[in-house]
Amino acid sequence: MANKSAKISLIIGLALPALMVAIIAGLVFLPSKTLHPTTDFIYVVGPYPSYVTRTGDTTTQHDTTITSGKLTHTTTSYAERDGYTPYPFEKNSAPRFFIHHTQTDTNDEIPVEEISKLTLSPEKKSPDGFTLAFGKQSYGVFPFFFNGDTNREHAYLSTERASKEITLVSDTSVNYYEMQLVGWVVPTK
User: Fold this and answer.
1) What is the mean pLDDT of residues 41-51?
2) Is residue 22 part of a domain?
3) Which structural domain, as residue segments, surrounds residue 174?
4) Within 10 A of 146 (CB to CB), how many other CB atoms are there?
5) Stretch 47-63: mean pLDDT, rounded?
6) Does some domain include residue 60?
7) 75 and 65 in contact (C-beta within 8 Å)?
8) Membrane spanning segments where (predicted)?
């Protein structure tokens, strides 16, 4: 009889840590499975909200802003002055805009002209209650293992209770620029 109770104690002692790990894993991973964002958003890779381009002897300042829910793109051109080479000295890349479709987790490049036709909300929180976060979302149970890396190739749609990793386009030719949220696409009725 003592041999049987020792085996039961051993089985319970070994099963209890495995059960605790399973419970913790469920509490961490299951909430993200219940997230279903519906609001698409526009993000940009490259210099934003303003950038400068140079064509021949003309330097052009480009500025983009969201005013009354619409993206506006304005340009101001300057002529070269007295042999002075204006900024930028080399070809400067223009920003690339993308629309992220949240329900399918896909991205499409979108020209500024098309974005201008959409209604955008520049708020931090989407109309359906999500926020967009770049970088590593969590450092786990042991935050002292943080190595200082701000990995911006990861993006998350988050609520107060959970986060869901999403896939965004990262352009390696302009990767020294951070990806930025331009605005949430507000559905028109």
Assistant:
1) 88
2) no
3) 41-185
4) 10
5) 82
6) yes
7) no
8) 6-30
Spell out the residues 6+ positions from residue 136 whose beta carbon is closer than 8 angstroms to its own. 149, 150, 151, 154
Instruction: Classify residue 5: in a domain, yes or no.
Output: no
Token output for 53: 């381009």
The angle formed by the CA atoms of residues 177, 178 and 181, to the nearest 5 degrees, is 130
Is position 1 within any domain?
Answer: no
Q: pLDDT of 2-26, one tens digit each?
A: 677 778 888 888 888 888 888 887 7
Q: Given CA atoms 138, 140, 144, 147 in this order, what sign does their dihedral have?
A: negative
- Give the total number of structural domains in the chain: 1
Q: State pTM to two decimals.
A: 0.71
Q: Where are the alpha helices (DSSP H) in the chain?
A: 2-33, 112-115
